[in-house]
Each structure stands twice: as structure tokens, then as C-alpha cells.
């Protein structure tokens, strides 16, 4: 009698633990299936913030690989087309410190500028431009819409006559510019140097 | 009504699980470096603690008592807690992948947070009703969150302070924790449980 009691309590103990395990396992399996996360949603979010120019200046083959690299811990300041805005947004999303744009480069923002009299109208730069910032058509002169240009450099290499320069972005007229006293500015010979190219463009 | 208030204050402040009963010290030290992750950890632990104490009550009174296997309570509670933590992890990953990444290994480690098991077992000894057990768990979680967030805020301040070299890092954290514990002892006698 004692033995059968002990057997029953032993069996019920096993049954309780097995039942608990199986039922919780089933519940978790169901929940895991129901709220499954496809891929890594954080990479999606980072990718959505990047400018999608696929220019490769970050050192990765495109925006998506760079988003994955950021997720793995790479720096967030390697995207020149995105500029400060993208860095600030990424820093906000990831809770990291915003850093100045990486690179030898980018002390000042540069945009492409086509020397129009040398342009032969080959349209190669138009095809290279990821943001459609170059207008023009075959055998006619092309030009860059400065506001659209992200400074990604991709149009420079395809140009057969090398008529594209990367120049500092001109200051918009809505922005304050230091007033240079014109009378005092060319008192001596060295003042009368050639105008800097971005002034000539205006 | 006043009874509910007494349970809440009693668990959150007077018998605070971290500083008075010294349970759940692992996340208290581990996740208190940054205020942000401390807040996330507090939210996750609050969720787990409340749900786990309710689920433990159901398992104990619905399964263990009728089958007369109450001696299995510790191991069954561990199973319950592990399941609830897994559930929480799935939900956190679904709702906030960033928080999931920030919490990292500490999220599954809620399983080994002894405060969770402590709450389940202690509320059992008090023979509380289902609702009161849930409230007890919630109060304990509230106290845990309060301490964790306060401590994280203190440590963030301390990281900018000029601390003598031998006291830097864990040493000053321990000193801070003990001072906080002293301060919380001031609550004893506020509510008699």
C-alpha cells in the first residue's frame, strides 16, 4: 500500500513537470511563430535613413551593406551624400554620439560642376548620377543642379573629356555672407587675384 | 483599498527587494551603467515579475496543490519564469529591436534574477489571493525599477566625477549602493507587514 502511494506521487510529480514543460513549450512555440521577426528590423531602419545613392563612398558596395555594417558596430559617419542630416538621424536612432563626417575629404561640402564650354554632350555623367542632379541631352551641353547634387563623385570618372570638377558648394543668397569692403579689397596687387571659381560660377 | 496600498508601498519601499532583501543584485550592478538601458531593463523586469507572479500563483494553486506535489514548487516556478522570460524576449524583439540589442544578454538573464523567484516564493508564504499576489509582484517590480533607475542616474553622474583612483569603477558603485541601502532602511517601520 505504501509502495503504491509512493508510486502515485512519483508519477504525478513526473506528470506535472512534463505537463508544465510541454504546455509552456507549445505556448512559446506558438508565440515565437506568431511574432516572428524577419531579418533584422534594425538594419531595415538604418537602411531607410541612408540616401540610397549606392555610391560606395563608405567603402561598402551599397547602402544596404553599409546599414548591416553599422548594425555590427561600424561608424555612422561614412556617408558623404547623406551628410550631417543622415549622421544626426542615425545617431538619434542608435543612441550613439553624432560624429563629424569621416574622410580625408569633406572639410567643406563639395558638389560637381561641369565646365560647360568643354562638355561634348555624351550623357555619360547623366547615366552615372544616382540622384538625377544632371540635366542635358545627347550632343547638348549638360549642367549640374547644385541643390540636388550630393557630392558623391560618381560623375567625375565617366566623363571622357574631364570637364567635371568638384567645387565647394556656393553659399545660397538666403544665407548671411561676410561683407568684404570692396574699396579696401583691391588696394594692392595681390588683392587683385583671379576670382575663386565658385564666385565665377554665380 | 488601503490594503492594496499597503502591499504596494510595503513591497516597493519598505521591503524593497534590492536594497533591503538583497535580491536581484546581478542586474542592479550589471545594467546600471546607462540610464537608458536601465529604464529598458526596468520595463522588461516589471513585465516579467508581474506576469511570473500571477502565473506562479495559477500553477501552484491550480496544479501543485490538487495533485499534492507542493514540494515541486521551486522547480515549477523556475520553469514558469523561464517561459515568461522567453515570451518577453520574443515580444521585446518584435516591438523594439533596438532595446533588444541594448539589453542583449541581460534579457535572458532575467531568468536568473533571484528577485523573480523570490517574489513567487515569498508571496506564497504570505498566502495572498490571486489579485494580491499579482499586486505583490508588481510592487516588487516597481521597487526594483525605482532602485535601478535611481542607481543608474547616480552612476551616470559619478562617471563624470573626479574619483580617487582606488575607488573608481565597481568600488564606488558598491559604496553608492550601500549608501542607498542605508537610506532605504529609513522606510522600515513606515508600514508594518
From TrEMBL, chain A:
Residues 110-139, 140-169 form the 4Fe-4S ferredoxin-type domain. The chain crosses the membrane at residues 6-31. [4Fe-4S] cluster 3 binds at residues 129, 149, 152, 155. Its EC number is 7.-.-.-. The keyword Acetylation does not apply. Residues 38-96 form the 4Fe-4S domain. InterPro entries: 4Fe-4S_dom, 4Fe4S_Fe-S-bd, 4Fe4S_Fe_S_CS, Elect_transpt_cplx_RnfB/RsxB, RnfB/RsxB_Proteobac, RnfB_subfamily. Keywords: 4Fe-4S, Cell inner membrane, Cell membrane, Electron transport, Iron, Iron-sulfur, Membrane, Metal-binding, Repeat, Translocase, Transmembrane, Transmembrane helix, Transport. The complex is composed of six subunits: RnfA, RnfB, RnfC, RnfD, RnfE and RnfG. PANTHER family: ION-TRANSLOCATING OXIDOREDUCTASE COMPLEX SUBUNIT B, OXIDOREDUCTASE. Belongs to the 4Fe4S bacterial-type ferredoxin family. RnfB subfamily. This is Ion-translocating oxidoreductase complex subunit B.
From TrEMBL, chain B:
Its main location: membrane. The keyword Transport applies. Keywords: Cell inner membrane, Cell membrane, Electron transport, Membrane, Translocase, Transmembrane, Transmembrane helix, Transport. The keyword Metal-binding does not apply. It is found in: Cell inner membrane; Endomembrane system. InterPro entries: Ion_transpt_RnfA/RsxA, NqrDE/RnfAE, NqrDE/RnfAE_oxidrdctase. It comes from the Bacteria. The chain crosses the membrane at residues 6-26, 38-59, 71-90, 102-123, 135-154, 166-187. Its EC number is 7.-.-.-. It is a multi-pass membrane protein. HAMAP family: RsxA_RnfA. Belongs to the NqrDE/RnfAE family. Part of a membrane-bound complex that couples electron transfer with translocation of ions across the membrane. PANTHER family: INTEGRAL MEMBRANE PROTEIN OF SOXR-REDUCING COMPLEX, ION-TRANSLOCATING OXIDOREDUCTASE COMPLEX SUBUNIT A. The complex is composed of six subunits: RnfA, RnfB, RnfC, RnfD, RnfE and RnfG. This is Ion-translocating oxidoreductase complex subunit A. It comes from Vreelandella vilamensis.
